[in-house]
TrEMBL record:
PANTHER family: PROTEIN PDC2 (PTHR19303:SF73), TRANSPOSON (PTHR19303). It is found in: Nucleus. Residues 75-151 form the HTH CENPB-type domain. Gene3D superfamilies: Homeodomain-like. Keywords: DNA-binding, Nucleus. Pfam families: CENP-B_N (PF04218), HTH_Tnp_Tc5 (PF03221). This is HTH CENPB-type domain-containing protein. GO terms for molecular function: DNA binding. It comes from the Eukaryota.
Amino acid sequence: MDKHCAQAHLRNSKSVRKCLSLQDKMKVIELLEKKQSKLSIASLFGVSKSQIHRISTNKENIKDFSVKNVFKPSKQRMTNESRFPELDDAVLKWFNEMRNPSSRCKPLSLSRAHIQARASHEAKARGISNFKASDGWFRNWRERCSIGHSIRLFGEAADVSVAEMEPLIQTIRDKLLRYRACNVFNMDETGLFYRALPTRTYVSNEEGQRKSIRGTKALRAKDRIALVLCVNATGSCKVDPFWLAVPKIPTAFVISRLQSLM
């Protein structure tokens, strides 16, 4: 069978990949050692040329398995082993202390950036210069230490019923249809918690099921400033945001002082 006929035969044979037995693989190796082309061998056994190529690449392992019944993998398997075990242990110890404090303190929520920053700190403290707390290191560290994926924490449930507010929202929408979109502005006030903790954290499998882990109100620090944002419906006019600082004298003391002067 010439080369062109063998190629046509392989194109027309659209069958499922055929698995060769050990005996057939040994016959393939014998034909390869006789300098027979891979294409003709593939046509003879009814397999693809790439499968014959893989047999040719691993022929030494196939011969050893045929004689000794011992298989030697051609490539070394990737293992998730740490280059710096003492660094991993230090980060894990810190992680457990933050998530399970011994005192009455609430457990802190830890993001990926926090853990990577701690790993860089531990590496610097140990004089490890060729270490980088990359995303790949973090992913492998989580697998080695049995740390689950991050979950979102909530301090308290939402109190607003969307179903009850929908008729009122639709009434406002009907009134806004009378105006041009560029003349419709929306202004809202929001709080900027500049000392707030992240609402997502990584937890270890030893802490229990993910659904049983709850956050607290301590997730958000009370230190904040009020921001006022304003923009029109088309987004063509954005008013510069301004913030409201905390008064030096609380409002309650101002009212009581005014009442004493009256």
